[in-house]
Write the structure tokens for this entry.
Amino acid sequence: MNIRNLSMSYGVQELFSDVNLQIDENEKVGVVGLNGAGKSTFFKIIMGIETPDSGKITFKNNARVEWIPQEITDEIPSLDVTVFDFLYSARPIEKLNRELQKCYEDVADCDDLTRNKIFKKIESIEKKLDYWEHYSAENTLLKIISGMNIDDSLLYKKIGELSGGQKSKVAFAKLLYSRPEVILLDEPTNHLDIETKAYVTNYLKNYKGSVYIISHDTDFLNEVTNKTLFLDKRRKSFYLYDGNYDKFKKLLREHEKALVRQMEIQDAQAKKLKSFIDKYSSSSGKRKKMVFDREKKLEKLLDNKIDIDLTSKSAKIDIDMDRESGKIPLKINSLSFSYGNDKIINNLSFSIRRGERFLIVGKNGAGKSTLLKLIVGKLEPSSGDIYIGPKTDIGYYAQEHELLDNNKSIIDNFSDIDISMSKLRSVLGRFLFTGDDVFKKVSVLSPGERSRVCLAKLSLSGANFLVLDEPTNHLDPETRKIVADTFKDYRGTMIVVSHNPEFVDNLGIERTLVLPKGIISYYNKQDVEYFSKINEKSKK
């Protein structure tokens, strides 16, 4: 990868400026940085989805690049083909075979000059078929399908019939099968179970090409990567480090310490120069010349001064209830829901006690997110009843942030909340949106930033009943911990869908609902690890 004079901004927000960097072929590179540093934008520039203000990114020999974005809902246009046909189409083997067949048909009835041209074309097509390993391609695909834990029952479903999580898993498998020279992965392990993650880890470690990975999963980065590309939000630039994530963090700490030492030395030198200048500023003769010399040195020192912001900013989350709910804030009786002929939820009944923490797990497509949408009124049940207590105030966190208006600014997304502008700006500041940040359109935010906007809205809801769909997705490790601590201390009632075992294990979950069977059991650590594993497996 060759990055030359790359600059990118959104309005007044500068992401990076005049970046120049070269990365060798076949490296496994972790791409890291704070939420909003421009990691996903960097990938979009590579893919031609975003246009930089200046500069360009190129690959040697026009290498073929494929990516899996964080949010994949609009990435599969072929909705009317089966999953297997969609996967198999990642290699143009059938197209090449048709071309080859036509060449053999044409060569039988042509002159010598045309025949030589056709033979050259045949040779070119056969080389391409060899590259795509056409004799073993189907076996390779079946191995990927197995390794990615794609159920046989999905293979002959139409793409349009799949849930968002299933589409993500299928798109990931297609990318692996398509053999690009460069792979870009944006949070690829968000929903992977242990076995699938192990398969993907091993696959990428042995991949004969370049791999660039944006991930908050530091264990995954440590396993796969041998280089780390740091997008420094503070200095608006990129820095390449040798080694995996842990080695990068160590080198970064050492680098920061060295910069602090240099800054302290510069401050001492500046103080000494200023002292001399102040003391002898009114002198004449030789001392005046010395003062002039010191002024020049001070000016040069200040021009090259290292400036480090030593304060580490992190989100501050508070969720308070306006009032207490009734003893039974939610009761569900004989609830069923269908998408077309597919019955997603079948005759489900349960109730939630005030203050209870309730976990929902199950394979992707089992109805977890659907159940939450039924509870908050985003969907209507096919049959059965959902009783919401008269004192139940619901706060809803949607997994894909669909409650936000992408065409509005951050601050305009709070127009439905009765709050003064000064207090709103203060709240947004606690979620790291300060100054002109609040006027940015939601559409230009990273998924992590959109998560923080959703959490800010949740903090102002005054809700006594939280409905949370994967609330820790897209968040950096520090913010994820803050969110976990906040929900742990929350005094109200909570229904949670989450694949994150660490998050779930610290919430004080009392019962677990397994979908689609509708089985409810008391929580224990072993169960939640197993159920979280199922949740992760099915959602990617």
Q: What stands out?
A: Residues 294 and 440 are 45 Å apart (CA to CA). The first strand starts at residue 2 and ends at 10. The chain has a mean pLDDT of 85. The radius of gyration is 28 Å.
